[in-house]
Amino acid sequence: MVAKRIRYRRAAAAVAAGALPCLAFPAPALWWFAYVALVPWMLLLRSAPPGRRAALEGWLGGAGFIIAVHHWLLPSLHVFLLPVAALLGLLWIPWALLVRVFLGGVPDPGRATAALLLVPAGWLLSELARSWQGLGGPWGLLGASQWQVPPALRLASVGGVWLVSLLVVAVNCALVLLISVPAARIPAVAGVTGCVVLTGAVWLWVPRPEVSGALRVAVVQPGLVADGPDSAEQRFTAGERLTRTLAGQRVDLVVWGESSVGADLAARPDLARRLAVLSSEVGAPLLVNVDARRPAGPAVAPVVGPAVGPVAAAATTPGGGIYKSSVLVGPGGPTGDRYDKMRLVPFGEYVPARSLLGWATSVGKAAGEDRRSGAEPVLMNLPGRPGVRIGPLVCFESAFPDMSRRLTRDGAALLIAQSATSSFQHSWAPAQHASLAALRAAEDGRPMVHATLTGISEVHGPSGERIGPALPTSARAAQVYEVPLARGSTYYVRFGDWPVGACLALLAGYCAVEGVRALGLRKPAPEPTTPPARTARG
Predict the structure, then answer these.
(1) Measured between alpha carbons, how far is 433 from 420 in angstroms, rounded to an integer?
(2) Residues 359 and 78 sit within 8 Å (Cβ to Cβ)
(3) What pLDDT is recorded for position 305?
(4) How many helices (H) and strands (E) does the chain have?
(5) Of all helices (H) and strands (E), which one includes residue 415?
């Protein structure tokens, strides 16, 4: 009975310990807490009696982490969040086993040194696995908690958010050694010192983005609109009214948020005409976001006024359906530049394996109809600024490091994320989403605009620094930002996710060594040789 009570207490402690790192993310944004947040969980895992217990507590802690970081999804997913967390929590089992193997008992200096490498690598493996779009994407990566720390952002320019996650876990691992294994203090101190030296070297010697010119970009945030049959029109009208206040302010680009236009512009030439008039009045193109059903077949962008240059045809829509599309509109109407969102939000915009999981629509706000995804990223030439191209992303695509890196490699001078988090207005979601822009900007050495319908809207410079004031969830405003452009390429853009490759190679090497060792132990011992018998004669 006592043993069962202890097991239950340890299980509850694992869930609570796994949830602790959520405090390092926005909205609490206690970034410093990330460097100690894993310590209670790791201390619990290292003391797990058998390996099965460590696996269970790793699973429970992972589920607790998912629920804590994504608790704002409860109004949409309801109880469905629990099985999702249980599924994703399984990804922490390998990490938990590594913690027990390398930190359990009294590790010698060699095992402690290996822990400082393999335990962070195991954590990164779980982050990599859950970064797949079908599992929700790379939201809540531990390194993302450091979005407002300049040295961490500089590390991101070298190895992406992955390198920052590795450093944070390595510090936690070193603290566990310092607390629980006095004999391992030398490698623990050496590990912390190594993290500090690495960060300092990157800060001092990695070149900063070279600023070359600037753009005046306006973000239009219309604020909350009451749900109803005319909510799309009310939102459009609010954005229209705010955009008119920009006339005479010499802006180069106006950005609206996600789903700011609720009808296909080819089917509603009146809306296209109103946008073209706005563009003419402001003297700048508008990047809007159309969330609407598009008919099958080629759709030609409507010309609603005197076109400035040729107006290209929009992309073909083979099967029709609902798309979320970034559309550039000038004084002559849509320019033909359009990007269709490629990575859709599971359950929010489509239901994976709908034939099996379609029941989720009856217990939450899961998508009643699957949206269609785009085929490829798109770069748009900015009218009036020769050589300046913008790379649009939609909603949680800003969480994917590879997407912004691809746009940067293709020549984007400005990254733009159009978002809407109005369903989670009074939760941590808007702040978590906005913080991702800082990481993407730092990784790619390009400024990033995060424009939303209802906040939080932010702009970050090419080093990840915030430019101008953020627009909170309470704001209804059109804000102009002086956005610095940058030249050159970061190490992350050049070499990509090399920390991930290094960790996978390290873990593969460890598994190979253990496999060889296991085979050696199972190899039957050679039979003893008997000396030849001597025959006595006499």
Answers:
(1) 10
(2) no
(3) 46
(4) 17, 13
(5) strand 414-419
